[in-house]
Design a protein that fits this description.
single chain; about 240 residues; alpha/beta; Rossmann fold; 9-stranded mixed beta sheet; about 30% strand; binds zinc ion
């Protein structure tokens, strides 16, 4: 079983009526549901107002993939929680950062950049082009697919060059965006995926769900590679002559 922790800055109860009209269980519930209906995932949810932002050492130790959605409360995630998540990623925990999580403190910490971008909310149609169809995250996804409306995220997206760029988004506003990016940090794998504005319906799209399910399997922590962060003494492999 892959242990997935879905994190959000709000519980569904704290979401606005506009959000709940689209996602009755909140964004947190909608994202959790796409993993809960798969047999190989064991899912828990966590959110900001819980003790230690819902991400205690015990919970992270039991997490193979952390899925992160945040929007306007990035600054309220405590330093020690950001550091704790970072350490787990470096030791091999997978991290999937969704939509407005691009500017979360954990994303900035792991990228080393501001992760800023250009944006507007005009309910633009978005067309996503898969540019690495052989990557496991894109298994079963067609060459391109459309989302009827999304928040426009445009370049330049201030990230380091992705280790793998899997999809480009095009919007009817004429903008383009690196919508699906993979990064390696230490022993951990990170996937950033752009769709998912809280008042639009992208988390019901079958390909968005498939990409995120594939991504969780790709990023899942390999417990055999769960290494401490300290350097270790290494005796010589060959005798000196
Ligand atoms: Zn948004």
């Amino acid at each position: 079983m892959i242990h997935v922790t879905v994190w959000n800055e709000d519980s569904a109860a704290e979401s606005s009526e506009k959000v709940l009209a689209v996602y009755p269980q909140g964004v947190l519930g909608a994202v959790a549901a796409m993993f809960e209906n798969q047999q190989d995932f064991q899912v828990r949810t966590a959110y900001l107002s819980q003790e230690e932002a819902g991400l205690t050492e015990e919970i992270l130790e039991d997490t193979d993939v952390l899925v992160w959605w945040g929007h306007c409360k990035h600054g309220l995630v405590p330093d020690e929680v950001v550091t704790r998540v970072q350490q787990h990623v470096l030791r091999g925990m997978g991290l999937i950062v969704l939509h407005s999580g691009h500017e979360s403190r954990i994303m900035q910490r792991l990228m080393g950049t501001q992760c800023s971008l250009r944006w507007h909310e005009n309910n633009d149609k978005e067309r996503l082009f898969v540019i690495e169809p052989s990557h496991p995250i894109m298994r079963g996804v067609p060459a391109w697919f459309e989302l009827e409306a999304e928040e426009m995220y445009g370049e330049r997206f201030d990230i380091p060059k992705p280790d793998e760029l899997l999809a480009i988004g095009w919007y009817e506003s004429g903008d383009v965006f690196r919508s699906a990016c993979c990064f390696n940090r230490g022993y951990g794998k990170i996937f950033y995926f752009q769709p998912g504005h809280e008042t639009l319906r992208s988390y019901y799209n079958e390909y968005v769900k498939l990409i995120l399910q594939n991504a969780a399997r790709w990023a899942a922590r390999n417990r055999e590679l769960d290494r401490p962060l300290r350097s270790e003494f290494a005796p010589a492999l060959e005798e000196k002559r």
